[in-house]
Amino acid sequence: MSVFLKNEFAAGGSGDLAPLETWVELWVTNDSDYDQAMSIIENFQKSGDKADWLCQSCGEENSGSFKFCWNCQNTCPE
Ligand SMILES: [Zn+2]
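Above: the input record for the complex with zinc ion. Below: its predicted structure, written as tokens.
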């Protein structure tokens, strides 16, 4: 399988750049590798998904990408 990565060093810019711009891009050079590459990306995205969490202070539900409660700024209990 022949691939190359783009943006592999851009992840350090997360927070300053829009998250979509810092995602690693996986490029395949053979169409026959496309399905395998997509399954790799899907696995990667699943492992990167954080579950929604409930604030222990006020009980509000927060998106997994939030580190602080949107309602009361309590920190995520990770
Ligand atoms: Zn809260």
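Notes for the reader.
The first strand starts at residue 3 and ends at 6.
The CA atoms of residues 3 and 69 lie 39 Å apart.
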